[in-house]
User: Fold this.
Amino acid sequence: MQLLNTLYLTTPESYLRLDNQTLAIEQDGALKLRVPLHHLNAVVCFGHIQLSTPLMHHLAQQGIALVLLDANGRFQARLEGPTAGNVLLRQAQHRASADAALTLSLARSFVAGKIRNARSLLLRGAREARNEADARALTRQALNLAAGLRALPGCGTLDALRGVEGEAAREHFVGLSLLVRPDARDAFSMRDGRSRRPPRDRLNALLSFLYSLWMNDCRSALEAVGLDPQVGFLHALRPGRAALALDLMEEFRPQADRLALTLINRQQLRSGDFVEREGGAVSLHADARKAVLVAYQERKQDVLQHPLLSQPVALGLAPLIQARLLARAVRGELDADGQPAGYLPFLIK
Assistant:
């Protein structure tokens, strides 16, 4: 199993073209880099990046996704070749989405994974807190998340489940600001909780950017195993919305949170790396985006213990492994005891 390799292009007006079996990157008419195409799973372009038509054809033929994002990381378009995967798996997925009990069970697993991982992040922060007040506050928030976990089995509808998830998310973001080093909290705090469109502060802007990266990797993983990213279970179906990718991404959001905190607390990002625009929107400067992308790619190399496989795996492989486990649950496969396999989220300690 190979790590999903993604090429990120952030320099405006770069020109990408096909050069034999490599992707050539030019700036101001000068060749800057060649990348062998067989190393790539996806090419992600931020902002005004130009591409040749032969390159786009070749990417589609080779099954390499081309993703177009705006300069702030918001999704614009995706170019892919013929639909991959077993049509029988997609049929099973559509049947599963119409099965209320199975839909609720899978949605509950996504939410449980998100809450458990968020709780682990807060508890780790409480153990490492430099003052007692922060430690107590973080422990309290972790207890509130534990209460949310206990409430999940009693959720008999998707709306009830989404209510528990929303409340847990609010509790988590309250605690997240306390994980920022004290001397950086004025610059990196959530002014009014989570804000997305647009982000209203630096921490929200950084999280939105990292979430968009995880979203792209989760969608690529689902497509790699043949699942339809549009047909989800927790997130409501809407035209153009990759609901299943959003479902799968939930358990990985705390990983994005952890990386955001690392970048801030190690002072790899500072307040000057962000720009505040008219209307209150906040975004990363171009050089800061590059630094985040490098850190993200490095973090994907981290090796963690998988809770089901009981073996170490690179974090960047986790979405692909989880997509395969999800496909197993959608197909209704049985475990060693002859029971429906279900779906076990990727849990961190």
In short: The domain at 6-79 is CATH 3.100.10.20 (Ribosomal Protein L15; Chain: K; domain 2). Residues 268 and 291 are 8 Å apart (CA to CA).
